[in-house]
Design goal:
The protein is an alpha/beta fold. It has two domains: 18-155, Rossmann fold; 164-262, Winged helix-like DNA-binding domain superfamily/Winged helix DNA-binding domain (Arc Repressor Mutant, subunit A), CATH 1.10.10.10. It has helices spanning 31-42, 56-65, 81-91, 106-114, 127-138, 146-164, 174-184, 189-196, 200-214, 219-229, 252-262; strands spanning 22-27, 47-53, 70-74, 96-100, 119-121.
Length: 267
């Protein structure tokens, strides 16, 4: 990888109507790709390259420094591209990210879209398709090739099947049931930790194990799973004597509070 650029290069917008153009940051390690994208966009009246960088660090700097609508980001610039995507969107929530990848896998495609990526392309994309991609993504659409679309559809079908189809009973420990009950009541991890008598980090660790056991990815999916499968009705309350059941609190208000507590993220 080439060395970091001290300051992202900026292309001034001087043509008429450029103020309404789609502002794009290009973050890629290959100079020839950056130059190619700039030349492609230079002939388009509605697209302007506002910065070009060659490292992940400079990409974050550029996003924080320049107003941009779209970021064309090479996934290989970061050792942890998923976390980088989340960080970039936290820094600029309205930014629309198009990932440039060598050969996306099914797992990567689904996970990147879940994290907020709006498009995935390869370096072999044709110039006219790249321009269309930028415009479509800027307009709020998602850009994937046919294979990527099929992967996403299958992922949502599998998720729907997990939430609606009967499953064999999963073995959960009393402490896991306590934590699940706390999540369905809309409690935050800190509050659950106090109820259970442990630390917030331990609760997070338990939640990861629970997600894996039940095949869900976040607090909202866990709440929906409990509602569809009446999970808490089938387990005795670990704090109570005898066979008193944990009261299910899975109405709309409970689900809303669950989303509010966890912000629908895997915590």
């Amino acid at each position: 990888m080439a060395k970091d650029e001290a300051t992202p290069q900026v292309q001034l917008e001087t043509e008429e109507g450029s103020a309404d153009a789609i502002r794009v940051i290009v973050a890629d390690s290959e100079p020839i790709f950056r130059v190619g994208v700039r030349k492609i966009c230079a002939i388009e009246d509605d697209i302007r390259i506002v910065a070009q960088v060659e490292s992940g660090v400079n990409a974050v700097t550029a996003v924080g420094r320049y107003e941009a609508d779209v970021l064309l980001f090479e996934s290989g610039l970061s050792e942890s591209p998923r976390e980088t995507v989340s960080s970039l969107l936290a820094l600029s929530p309205s930014l629309k990210i198009i990932l440039v990848m060598i050969e996306p896998t099914e797992e990567e495609t689904v996970e990147f879209l879940r994290r907020g990526v709006r498009g995935i392309v390869t370096r072999s994309i044709a110039p006219d398709l790249l321009v269309r991609c930028i415009r479509k993504v800027h307009a709020g659409e998602t850009w994937l090739d046919n294979k990527g679309v099929n992967w996403v559809i299958e992922a949502y079908r599998a998720q729907a099947a997990q939430l609606t189809s009967p499953r064999s009973r999963v073995k959960l420990s009393p402490k896991e049931i306590q934590i699940i009950a706390g999540v369905t009541q809309g409690l935050r991890n800190k509050d659950i930790a106090q109820e259970v008598g442990t630390t917030e980090q331990v609760v997070k660790n338990y939640l990861r194990k629970i997600y894996d056991k039940l095949g869900v990815s976040d607090r909202l999916e866990l709440a929906l799973y409990c509602m569809h499968h009446k999970l808490l009705e089938t387990y005795p309350n670990p704090k109570a004597e005898g066979s008193v059941l944990v009261p299910p609190a899975m109405g709309r208000a409970a689900i809303a509070s669950t989303v509010g507590a966890g912000n629908a993220t895997r915590k």
